[in-house]
Specification:
The chain is α+β, with helices and mostly antiparallel strands. The protein is built from eight helices and 16 strands.
């Protein structure tokens, strides 16, 4: 099972927690302890994702989108794994590789650590370590939950400047990327971040833009969608009320609504669900908001659970 180590984590002794912390760059484990951890981990880790690629021969009439749907993936994942698909076409007769879930393949630089790979792609070092079979010195790794984009795996240069959608320091209650759902315990992909705040807290536009939508959407509840320069978009969901309308131009820091619990929020605590997306041939694709935002207190960017690992 992909997340077997994580599911067993509550039974780990202290030395394993110490060693896994060293993977994330949060603590230094003694060499002998770390070596023992690696041997234990290798015994229970799954087969690396890149050893479990399926092969698909493209049939006449198939498209990139239809193949992606067949394997419950997004087209960007197939494009990243198969350079021949990056023009958007699916040549009949060609054989392609298909990973078991969304993500990207990344070459590891000499001396690069798991923590550095995780920081670069907004992921967790322990999760990347496990899905790659707990290999100590891989040349290539698979990073789950990251979208491939033309010209590299990093999104285009941001038009959204550092700021915050809330007027107060905020704690992230639920992070971007592959996470354990706080309610169901299932592994899910979370397309934004949830910022804990009291109901009624003002919600602000992080940068100037034009309101593309303000209304109710299933799941999001009351949501305001704002389009920005260079193909960027921000979304503000689960609002208790909205104070803007579609077509309205917003200044940076302008109030657009208030924190609420409308729709189907993840978890019981009131929060703002905030997303940053960029426009592509595949539609509006979510990206990690972390590089763009200043929540007023960098020590509180990750939840207490994440800081303790």
């Amino acid at each position: 099972m992909i997340f077997r180590l994580l599911s067993l984590s509550r039974y780990w002794p202290v030395w394993i927690w110490t060693a896994i912390s060293s993977l994330s760059g949060l603590a230094i484990a003694p060499p002998a302890t770390a070596d023992l951890f690696f041997r234990e981990a290798e015994a229970v880790c799954p087969v690396p994702v890149l050893s479990r690629l399926r092969r698909h021969r493209i049939a006449p009439g198939e498209t990139l989108e239809s193949i992606a749907r067949q394997y419950d993936l997004i087209p960007a994942t197939l494009m990243g794994m198969n350079p021949s698909l990056r023009g958007g076409e699916a040549p009949a007769g060609e054989e392609i590789v298909v990973p078991p879930y969304n993500g990207i393949r990344v070459e590891v630089r000499p001396g690069q650590t798991w923590q550095e790979i995780a920081r670069t792609h907004g992921a967790r070092a322990d999760v990347i370590f496990e899905v790659n079979g707990c290999d100590r010195n891989p040349a290539v790794v698979f990073v789950p939950g990251v979208n491939w984009t033309p010209g590299g795996t990093a999104p285009p240069a941001p038009a959204v400047r550092s700021g915050s959608p809330l007027p107060i320091p905020a704690t992230v209650a639920f992070r971007y990327g592959w996470q354990l759902h706080p309610g169901t315990g299932e592994v899910v992909f979370h397309g934004g971040i949830d910022l804990a705040a009291a109901v009624g807290t003002p919600v602000l536009s992080v940068v100037e833009g034009v309101v593309a939508f303000a209304g109710f959407r299933e799941g999001y509840g009351n949501v305001v969608v704002v389009n920005h320069a260079q193909g960027k978009q921000t979304r503000y969901a689960h609002l208790s009320e909205m104070s803007v309308r579609a077509g309205q131009r917003l200044a940076s820091g302008q109030r657009l609504g208030a924190v609420g619990q409308s729709g189907r929020p993840d978890g019981d605590r009131p929060h703002l669900h905030f997303e940053i997306r960029y426009n592509s041939d595949l539609g509006w694709v979510a990206e990690d908001p972390d590089p763009y935002l200043d929540l007023g207190n960098s020590d509180r960017w990750y939840s207490r659970r994440d800081r303790g690992r």
